[in-house]
Write a structure and sequence with these properties.
The structure is a homodimer. With about 220 residues, chain A is an alpha/beta fold. The first copy, chain A, has helices at about 1-15, 30-45, 55-60, 85-95, 105-110, 115-130, 145-155, 175-185, 200-210, 220-225, and strands spanning about 20-25, 50, 70-75, 100-105, 135, 160-165, 190-195, 210-215.
Chain lengths: ~220, ~220
């Protein structure tokens, strides 16, 4: 029985590590920091790493002998740059070898009712990503009920593959509630990522049980340790 | 005597308002928020407004009958995007009518010793800004003593007109210490801006006395009220 429990735990942990995008976005991250991030991602068998545009090329080089993925942040963290800049930023990330794009859309313009602008922005990123997975970061807490319903309709039409929801804010069930709501509003065809404060394996498992198939976190090593 | 004091206070306040860049960078700032920001800047006679790329065009339209300036944020707030993206972001801001550029350079690459990369990034922005003032946001707290000296040497060679220092962090004298150090390291030919938490007129005056000729703050109206 003891062995069976251990085996099941091991299996779940093996499954869990493949969901993790090992993330580092601090403004003064050094070359050595990025090399360490990539080495840890390889060591633990994570899905890949998630980094700022300036570090995409370095991360691609570090992971080139592996099947780990480099996720490039675009329009991060505010999402309030010009749409044209975000499209160009995606092209630069692709040129630098990024395998996936994670971008922050313009919620201010969306809340102003500019739904066409919002849809066009996402479609431009999807086109610039050239078949690579695109994740849309969506902070549901900034939207009211009606806006949440509409934004999910727009994203369903956009060609994006993933929606990334914030994880770990206090009083919100650590992101579980957001994931369940997103699954309901987005339907079954858009994958979910939880990103943010995921301090341990229990939090990670709760997010996976709520539908996340990716976990973006700076605490990846702590989760599997 | 009472009148003289009032007059002096009034004169200083008139001087103070012309230093203020009325700032709004929250990710979901609405059209109405930006219109209010611009109306307040006109009403109080501020230097101008400081906004994200997505809102530059709107702010330019709001201020077009005035001599107030629109300052466009580039690479904000992390400064960790690709240099090429930041250059393009500057071009888009200029096309949208921005009068000044405020951008965050890549401190991670600088700290790795890539001084040429850092210099080239700033020069590219200065060139893309096409004679418009360029401010370099510099977080001295992320650098050691030697790095501070070198970064200021590089900026002196870059063609940038301004350095923006964070204001208002506790235990740092509200940014006064940073401004004095910057003046010493940059020499007399680069202007200084203090940006961040400047809650009232007393804080603003302390920063001006320490050498700032611009104040970037979300609290501009509170300062003059």
């Amino acid at each position: 029985l003891s062995w069976a429990v251990d085996s099941s735990t091991l299996t779940r942990m093996q499954e869990l590590v493949r969901y993790i995008e090992h993330t580092l976005f601090k403004p003064d991250a050094s070359r050595a920091d990025i090399e360490k991030l990539c080495a840890e991602a390889i060591q633990h068998g994570f899905h890949g790493v998630c980094v700022n545009g300036s570090r995409v090329g370095l991360a691609v080089t570090q992971l080139e002998e592996t099947d780990l993925k480099v996720v490039a942040l675009v329009g991060f963290p505010l999402g309030a740059g010009a749409a044209d800049t975000k499209r160009y930023e995606t092209e630069v990330a692709v040129d630098d070898g990024a395998h996936e794009i994670e971008f922050v859309p313009d919620l201010g313009r969306f809340k102003d009712g500019e739904h066409e602008y919002f849809l066009r922005e996402i479609r431009d990123i999807v086109e610039a990503a050239d078949e690579r997975p695109v994740k849309v970061v969506l902070e549901l807490g900034l939207l009211d009920e009606e806006q949440r319903r509409i934004v999910c309709e727009v994203i369903r039409d956009s060609g994006a593959n993933f929606v990334t929801a914030p994880a770990g804010f206090a009083g919100e069930g650590g992101g579980v509630g957001e994931l369940k709501l997103l699954r309901e509003l987005l339907g079954p065809n858009i994958a979910l990522k939880a990103a943010g404060n995921i301090p341990d394996a229990a939090s990670a498992k709760a997010l996976i049980d709520a539908g996340a198939t990716r976990l973006g976190t700076t605490a990846g090593v702590a989760i599997v340790s």
